[in-house]
Design brief:
Helix content is about 80%, strand content about 0%. The protein has about 325 residues and is mainly alpha-helical. The chain has two domains: about 5-285, no CATH class; about 295-324. The mean pLDDT is about 80.
Length: about 325
């Protein structure tokens, strides 16, 4: 990869690393109403950008077309709400499984952009990662069972995946937009969530632990990570980053296991191997991938030929045996 693309891709990897610890942080935030929680998270994220823009005196960047503000609000704030709210209507394993269609959607949407090319290796890498997620949550899905009673949750999870996947492709296309716009989107989201909280929810005083975890989540996952990801998908290898997000999800499960939040299972190991293969394939350049694919095809053909030859020899030996 070109040096600039490499640098941006590594920046995107840092965002993925930050998201790895988010489930562990969120698991500690219990009992807070959804709009109250999102208002705290989004406001904390906005503070990062506020101080940065105030120091640099770059408030002129807020002068963006309405469609930019709408795309950012829907892609970041509405997608977070859809995911969290969807988990209130359906089992979290189901919601996770549907929500993690978004890396595949990012690849699909990005391939539609000018100067972007569809590549089989990127799709294959994303599918392997998705298969890893399927294996990871299969047991929980089997226990709960998909049901029409969960349709609202399923719809919200799918909406969240579409919004975030679409926003990532939108960001890729609009590379000139300042990364600080992420924090401004979160500021708008904080205002909207606060108004909705006042109208539909009863305020719950957060404990010290809940409040600190919510602020840390806002500063890292919804603040720093979103901006790093935005820079990564604009200038880095968006296909490799999309495949690598599956590793983050599985690593997050590993952290939950280490801290006693989830049990250790063989499915976690298998999912990790599949997603690692997906990232490896997505990271190959086209020529190398084609060489590997051709060698694999030749090996498979040789195996098929050897098997047919062995069957032919067995049948031939049976035919030439003398009758007793």
């Amino acid at each position: 990869m070109h040096d600039t693309v490499k640098r941006a891709t590594y920046v995107g990897f840092v965002a993925i690393g930050i998201w790895t610890i988010q489930p562990l942080l969120i698991s500690e935030i219990n009992g807070l109403p959804i709009f109250e929680l999102l208002a705290i998270i989004f406001f904390s994220s906005f503070l990062l950008t506020f101080f940065r823009l105030a120091k640099q005196k770059r408030w002129h960047i807020i002068k963006q077309p309405l469609y930019v503000w709408l795309a950012g609000f829907l892609g970041i704030c509405a997608s977070d709400f859809a995911y969290i709210h969807g988990a209130q209507y359906a089992p979290i394993a189901h919601v996770d499984l549907i929500d993690y269609l978004w890396p595949c959607l990012v690849i699909a949407f990005a391939c539609m952009l000018p100067k972007e090319r569809f590549s089989l290796q990127h799709l294959l890498g994303a599918i392997l990662g998705l298969l890893g997620i399927v294996i990871l949550v299969a047991k929980q899905v089997d226990i709960n069972g998909f049901s029409f009673n969960y349709c609202i949750g399923y719809g919200l999870a799918l909406l969240g995946a579409l919004l975030w996947g679409g926003y990532s492709a939108f960001s890729r296309h609009h590379k000139a937009l300042p990364t600080e716009m992420i924090g401004l989107y979160c500021g708008l989201g904080a205002v909207v969530c606060f108004v909705l909280h006042l109208k539909f929810e009863t305020f719950v005083m957060p404990s010290w632990s809940q409040g600190s975890m919510a602020v840390i989540t806002g500063l890292t996952g919804a603040g720093l990570a979103y901006q790093l990801w935005d820079f990564g998908v604009k200038f880095g290898n968006i296909y490799l980053l999309s495949a690598a997000t599956y590793i983050a999800r599985i690593a997050a499960m590993g952290l939950l296991v280490i801290f006693g939040k989830e049990p250790f299972t063989i499915s976690l190991v298998i999912a990790c191997l599949l997603s690692s293969c997906g990232v490896f394939i997505s990271g190959l350049d086209t020529n190398t991938f084609n060489k590997v694919r051709q060698r694999g095809a030749r090996f498979f053909q040789q195996m098929q030929f050897t098997r047919r030859q062995s069957l032919f020899n067995e049948l031939h030996n049976v035919q030439i045996q003398p009758e007793k």
